[in-house]
Amino acid sequence: MKTVVVKMGGVASDNLNDAFFEKISSWQEQGYQVIIVHGGGHYISTMMKTLGLEVEVKEGLRVTSDETLEITRMVLLGQVQPMITTYFQQAGFHALGLNAGCDQLIQGEVINEEQLGFVGQVTEVNHQLLQTLLTKKHIPVIAPLGITAAGQWLNINADEVAWKIAASLQAEKLYLLTDVPGIKKESEWLKEISVTDIQQLKTEKVVTGGMLPKLDSAQKALMAGVKSVFISNTIDSFGTEIKFATAG
Fold first, then answer.
1. What residue stretches are annotated with the Aspartate/glutamate/uridylate kinase domain (predicted)?
2. 248 pLDDT exceeds 50?
3. Which of 84, 125, 150, 154 is the most buried (most CB within 10 A)?
């Protein structure tokens, strides 16, 4: 089964236009099954500010207290996911909103509770559930949340969830969508980089903030067998492709 995993950020979720859905249709016509992982940081931050709560981010990850976790769940599952699935359904696709509580879809563990609170990383993905849905031509739309073995919900970076899902299904393509058209060095948007370039881009501070988890996720996905990873602001352009080695 050929699979494409697309991670959409909160801002990218506003841009579900005709070109986006034409690309999804094109992939399906080529025999690809599609999975969407959605973020929602923009909406979560807006809600927290509305409620007078401080937004704290460390190395691209949102520090997540009990209160922040509840707001995150509320926004992702009550606002962002229904919005995305509605757009897909209006465009004629069989979209299905899923979360960590759906047959243990995403199992996780806390990264560092003292520093980050209830921020987690993925330990296991129920890929059998996803394969069953894909066989029936559904498009899973998945929120970036996990649950520990003890039943604690976790806020997980959406790029991390996306690459773990892509790896579990040995996806052909992984798109990490963001609000910029790729990785920029000086005044140039890079068409491709190799995994060996990543550390240098970090050291030189070419890549900072929220782009750091994206590069880490791209590298891990390739190492785990995903064939190609793209960082872009749209699925109808390649943006920056990350490969094991650049040509030449």
1. 2-232
2. no
3. 154
Q: What is the pLDDT of residues 174-207, one digit of tens each?
A: 999 988 889 988 888 999 998 888 888 888 888 8
Fold of 2-243: Carbamate kinase (3.40.1160)
Nearest Cα residue to 218 out of 186, 154, 248, 173: 173
Taking residue 99's Cβ as centre, other Cβ atoms within 10 Å add up to 19
Integer Cα distance of 212 and 184 in angstroms: 13
Strands 240-243 and 184-185: unpaired
The total of other beta-carbon atoms located within 10 Å of residue 92's CB is: 9
Domain ranges of the chain: 2-243
Binding site per annotation, positions for substrate: 40-41, 62, 155
The CA distances from residue 148 to 39, 116, 156, in Å, are: 20, 16, 12
Under a CB-based contact definition with an 8 Å cutoff, are residues 147 and 107 in contact? yes
Annotated binding site: 40-41, 62, 155
- How far is it, in rounded angstroms, from Cα 133 to Cα 95? 10
Across all residues in the chain, what is the average pLDDT?
A: 91
- Give the model confidence (pLDDT) of 5-38 as tens digits: 999 976 656 678 899 999 999 999 999 999 999 9
